[in-house]
Amino acid sequence: MPVASISVSDTPLLRYTLRRADDALILGHRLSEWCGHAPMLEEDMALANMGLDLIGQARSLYAYAARVEAAGRDEDAYAYLRDVRGYGNLLLVEQPNGDFAQTMLRQFLYSAFIDPWWRAMMDSTDATLAAIAAKAEKESAYHLRHASEWVVRLGDGTQESHRRAQAALDALWPFTGEMFEVDPSERELIAEGVAIEPESLRAGWCETVASVLAQATLAVPQNDWMQKGGRNGHHTEHLGHLLSELQYLQRSFPGAVW
Amino acid sequence: MYTQALNIRPDSGERQLEDADLTVRFQARIDAEERIEPNDWMPAAYRRTLTRQISQHAHSEIVGMLPEGNWLTRAPSLRRKAALLAKVQDECGHGLYLYAAAETLGSSREELVDQLLSGKAKYSSIFNYPTLTWADIGAIGWLVDGAAIMNQIPLCRCSYGPYARAMIRVCKEESFHQRQGYEIMLTLSRGTPEQKDMAQDALNRWWWPCLMMFGPPDAASLHSDTSTLWKIKRFSNDELRQKFVDATVPQARILGLSLPDPELRLDEETGHWRYGEIDWNEFKQVIAGNGPCNRERLAARRKAHDEGEWVREAALAYAQKQRDKALAA
Fold this sequence. Notes:
The complex is a heterodimer of chains A (about 260) and B (about 325).
Chain A: H1 12-32, H2 41-69, H3 75-80, H4 91-94, H5 100-121, H6 127-155, H7 159-172, H8 184-191, H9 202-215, H10 238-246, H11 248-252
Helix pairs in contact in A: 1-2, 1-8, 2-6, 5-6, 5-7, 5-9, 6-7
Chain B: H1 20-31, H2 44-63, H3 65-69, H4 78-103, H5 109-117, H6 135-152, H7 161-189, H8 193-212, H9 224-229, H10 237-255, E1 265-266, E2 273-274, H11 280-290, H12 294-307, H13 309-328
Antiparallel strand pairs in B: 1-2
Helix pairs in contact in B: 2-4, 4-7, 6-7, 6-8, 6-10
GO cellular component, one term (chain B): cytosol
GO molecular function (chain B): phenylacetyl-CoA 1,2-epoxidase activity
Pfam families (chain B): PaaA_PaaC
């Protein structure tokens, strides 16, 4: 009998994998929203390209989650049959595209974290995660480069682009702290060498961000209040709308194969 | 990057009397199946015809991203989502490639895009129809890309080198898209009754507009004669339309779907499938701007263009600053 929503077993590795898969899917979905509407055709291509990379990463991670859970599910069950509270992505990646500056700053802040994260995950004691990381790292390196170049162009472009880039940075900044959060279930995985300690990436992230923002003549926001909750399903209101679109067909025709 | 004009020629105006020798030699090269390259002499009308055709083709690829893009966020599985995004990205690539081919004839991409946005330039009428259900994504891949391939395969032998070479690459990708679309239709037609209805409904809505994609009947076509002489066009509209119908009828049978044409029948003598009367009035209305989505499609392109202006300006301003710095250093 087809079900409306699934409930997922709560084991540390499954939870860890699903959270990262959700990051990739939600950001990839956001980027796909640009397709056909970008400021220039080259960016239609680039945004779609990054979106495809991210959706590909999400699929690898969901497929691995299915193996870990061993409950007979596939990648689509996780993507299409969990509701907002079951999603564990970062609040940063679910933020709306806004203007091109907001999209690029979001991509930059995330990529500056996830690129070294993937590189570190290549040494994970979990062979599957390490293999996924080896592929994803090449992609995230490009995303970081592409987004950094745009942050610099926009920041050091015209007055208007500078104003928009700074506004986007200020709006997104409070969502960056969550990338370094660790909950108790992840502590075990870190101890086993499956996951990595995100705190170890903080100095590098701060350096990348400071250096690119300096080139872009943008000011690092002084507001250090950080929003969190995404990892435990406490999302912004944006995610529900995103999921209602993403999941529409699976919800409307339960059990159908597409 | 959204470039300024490349290779813009000074506007010489159309010379009333083109060198008769050159014209004869040009036609002889065409007749000998030689490719004409950007720096070769060519009659002004040849240049104009190709610029119009290639840029319309480019516009069609770009506007064509919109109806399919409409389902990117609602694709029913991750595999379908990735395939559709890759497909729409391919269309964008085709557009870029074709604008570059048109630029070799001396018009800039900016000029050509302005013609699209001002409503002066045309694009394929098919993209003015809405995508209402997921099955439309299957139908577009199967039928619209199928029709496009019929049109484009002969263009791989077009006399203008850059266009012919662009078409070789484009056709390879379109064939892949067509198989993907057909596979969506196959999945739906073998799915639940609701899915099969969805597939049949999409076929009903897209069939006739797809037959119109080949353009007016031969008797009424404006451009065919010189295009044929110049080997830009190798088959007439009606010939291509017939090839498409003949190829598609058996495919629909395999799907277990029926084509929405009560007059469709096999002509035993010729082996061709004869089809009913096409509503050319509908075609004229869509071309004239009165299709169901003409306004939305152009509005979406204009919006992307207008809202992207500050981004393009920023990129230019930044590049200028870098050049100034390099000069000062």
